[in-house]
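S.,

As promised, the calcium ion run. Input:
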Amino acid sequence: MIQAYVIIAHSRDIYGPQAYGSDGSARGSIHPLSGKLIYTSERLLSIILEKKFHTYRIRPVPLRVNHEPSTRAQAEGETPPLWDASSQRTGSCQKRFTPWEEKRGRASQKQGLTKTSRRSIKKLNFTKEDRALGGVATIILAAGKGTRMKSDVVKVLHPILGLPMLSYPIAVSLEIKADKTIIVVGYQADQIKEKFKNPQIQFVLQKEQLGTGHAALQAVPFLKTFTGTALILCGDVPLVNAGTLREFVAAFEESPSVLSVLTTVAENPFGYGRILRSPEGWLEKIVEEKDASEKERSVREINTGIYCVRAPFLVEGLGEIGKDNAQGEYYLTDLVEIARKKGLRCSAHIVSDPVEVMGINTRVDLALANEVLRQAKSKDLMLSGVTMLDPRTTYVDQSVEVGKDTLLYPNCHLQGRTKIGERCVIEPNVKVSDSIIGNEVTLRSNSVITESKIEEGASIGPFSHLRPLSEVKTKAKIGNFVEVKKSVIGRGSKANHLTYLGDSIVGEEVNIGAGTITCNYDGFEKHPTIIGDGVFVGSNVELVAPVKVGNGSTIGAGSTITKDVPGGALAISRTKQKNIKGWSRTIKHRRKKTETGKG
Ligand code: UD1
Ligand code: CA
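Predicted complex:
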């Protein structure tokens, strides 16, 4: 009698417990270590005997359905079920199971591998416990230069909505809680590694960029003992979301295929690899634009560059890729034909929205991706309670947070790690980068704020410039044509007009008169100005740093202050005014003429 097997096994050198099914057919049940198909009970036993697993359970079960799955199902265009057998537990060897494994083991014992348990096995996709069963390792290909970008900067570091392109596939990999995230880097590898330093990420170097197949090959050392699903992503396909990938991996894991490619039907498939399917729908080949015949080019289903591959097959298959093609490169897409030659199945999983899986090759693509994300971001913000007078001209970076009931006028740019509080008003042409803005702050037109912190109820602008490391405390006011750099402006203080405050600490309730300048730079070094609470600085004062003004002092308009001012004092430094009587401009004019002898 033909027998089917389920092995559920733990191993020290692979990642978590693994489940494999075999019913003697070529239905994608693979040896977890060699990647070879498991055909016979002897083969199964030999895996056990190799003692790669330290706990295991073998469940030989008689087949209920009598068919030749690989050929019959293919003829019928069906995906043959992986676990098409009823169970009769005839033997088990068990040292240690996780409670979850144990539970499932018992359930299977009771019910046998009936439809219900089959479904429960099929469900084994992406809940936390399930993933422990095989795991997902993400490989992100990001070594290419991106020649078509015509840039000195590697393609994957070009920003989309304020974040480098590569940060999107990395974020998705972390979001789906992949067991490993391996990034293949090459061109400007050091810059990339520096930018994405993270203990959850491993980098591998592709010294020469010899093609996508060669790039994936570099990740093999990380996969040697990995038996789960390798999810291959491209650094230049940034818009794909976690939900789509979860579905893709889930569908793959319950399919009999060793490889599945994520595809879409493109309006204009130019430049993409084309998907060639068998009459039954299995994936037969992916052919690159440059290698395609005219007929193949007319196919509109395209390769998105995202794949699920059973890791052992990947490891084996990558070693067999050649470069006999129009571009003389090692094509990852050749894995499909390699699998088929071994009698293994490949499939294709369609995504309905081509934009989600678009590849970025030129700056035109980059602008499109940016626009897609910008609109999505605006929508999210509006749905979370932010008013945008004109979302078409409001530019909010991916990483920016905006509180509810904040009003964004047209053409404001909120960038980087900026956080905006609730009930703020941000007027037209304001640019805020990497800054923290409290609640009820007004940023008036044409102000630029960089790496600064503004507290509740403060008001900035119009036409203010807050340079890095400025802090404006509660209810303080920075008015028109005021520049602040590396300074703290205390609670309730005001600098309303035409002022420069650099390297200063301004206390609370201080009035800084129009045209006040802190002279912080002597040509060699920067010096601080410290102004106490309740100080009144008259208009047009120069404070020559380093200088301190004590609490409650007054500084007369037009003064040049070079010495510290004690608290409660009046400091004036200006030449004494002289009034010359009878001095009119006509007399002066006449006198001048006689003196010069002209007349
Ligand atoms: C690739 C696919 C094509 C698919 C398209 C989807 C191949 C042969 N072709 O073509 O079928 O439609 O993606 O976007 O796979 N990379 C490396 N090292 C290399 C070469 C590339 O890491 O040696 C990386 C790139 O950085 C990039 C990704 O792989 O992130 C794709 O490379 P790219 O050259 O853009 O491939 P396409 O021509 O777009
Ligand atoms: Ca590409």
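The first strand starts at residue 3 and ends at 11. The radius of gyration is 35 Å.

- D.
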